[in-house]
């Protein structure tokens, strides 16, 4: 993803500033300000968690518009990523990041909180994870850095694995090319709330799976996942590892989201 295109809201702010200035006679437009130096995006992978809007301190970072133009009460639902997977620009510094209920009932109640200091020039991903506690109205959460290189090798795809399943042991991601049949481990075993390293792979279609350390059978599988050269991908395990249904919303699942 082009770091300049951090988020549509950044462009909207710039365009809005320009529009206001143009209404003023002989106004001089000043659009020389720099974009925020850090970037972050937000996932709602907390099983059974309600839809949320994500915040940095008191600043709303994600929201869903309705057909009427007002903010929808759905928020980012389970299995979703805020702003279509785009990174949001943010100034470096210390923050409390939260997922707050978007519905009218318990509106803006924070169900997850993570404190994190963001550094200039770095990208991050915030994950609601684990299981939503309906009594306490809380869910687990964590943040990982997304340290893919600024200069991309367009001959390969970069892929890494994040484990967001709280009731699963450490797992290794494997990818098997659907044409050549070559299987590759994407880094090593990744524990809950952790991320593996980005691994270079030839472009193509892959069947992907995760396995526990020492196991020969797959814990989670997904077929025909396309990785394009010059792109960067994060495969994230989410859901309840004990569910065996292939259609249940909370089944263990391997999410594929493009970083760039």
Search tags:
1 helix, globular, Immunoglobulin-like, 2 domains
In terms of topology, how is this protein built?
Layout: H1 8-22, E1 38-44, E2 52-56, E3 59-60, E4 80-81, E5 88-90, E6 93-101, E7 110-118, E8 123-133, E9 138-145, E10 157-163, E11 171-177, E12 183-190, E13 194-195, E14 199-201, E15 204-212, E16 220-227, E17 232-238, E18 253-258
Parallel strand pairs: 1-8, 10-17
Antiparallel strand pairs: 1-4, 1-5, 2-3, 2-6, 6-7, 8-9, 10-13, 10-14, 11-12, 11-15, 15-16, 17-18
Please give a structural write-up.
This protein has 260 residues and is mainly beta. 6% of the residues lie in helices and 43% in strands. Strands 1, 4, 5, 8 and 9 form a 5-stranded mixed beta sheet that branches. Strands 10, 13, 14, 17 and 18 form a 5-stranded mixed beta sheet that branches. Mean pLDDT is 89; it is low at 1-32.
Give a summary of the structure in a few sentences:
This protein is mainly beta and 260 residues long. It contains one helix and 18 strands.
């Amino acid at each position: 993803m082009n770091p300049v295109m951090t988020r549509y809201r950044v462009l909207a702010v710039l365009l809005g500033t320009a529009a206001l200035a143009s209404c003023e006679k002989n106004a001089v437009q000043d659009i020389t300000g720099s974009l925020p130096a850090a970037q972050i995006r937000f996932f709602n992978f907390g099983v059974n968690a309600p839809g949320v809007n994500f915040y940095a301190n008191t600043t709303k970072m994600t929201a869903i518009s309705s057909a009427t133009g007002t903010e929808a009460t759905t928020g980012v639902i389970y299995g979703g990523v805020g702003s279509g997977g785009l990174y949001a620009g943010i100034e470096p510094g210390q923050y409390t990041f939260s997922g707050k209920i978007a519905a009218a009932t318990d509106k803006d109640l924070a169900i997850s909180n993570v404190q994190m200091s963001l550094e200039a020039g770095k990208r991050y991903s915030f994950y609601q994870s684990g299981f939503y506690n309906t009594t306490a109205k809380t869910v687990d959460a964590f943040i990982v850095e997304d340290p893919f290189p600024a200069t991309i090798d367009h001959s390969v795809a970069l892929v890494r694995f994040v484990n967001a399943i709280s009731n699963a042991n450490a797992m290794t991601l494997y990818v098997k090319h659907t044409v050549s049949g070559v299987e590759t481990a994407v880094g090593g075993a990744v524990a809950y709330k952790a991320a593996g390293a980005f691994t270079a792979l030839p472009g193509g279609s892959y069947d992907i799976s995760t396995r526990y350390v020492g196991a020969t059978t797959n814990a989670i599988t997904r077929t025909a996942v396309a990785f394009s050269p010059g792109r960067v991908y994060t495969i994230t395990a989410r859901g309840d590892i004990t569910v065996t249904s292939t259609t249940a919303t909370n089944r263990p699942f391997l999410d594929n989201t493009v970083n760039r």
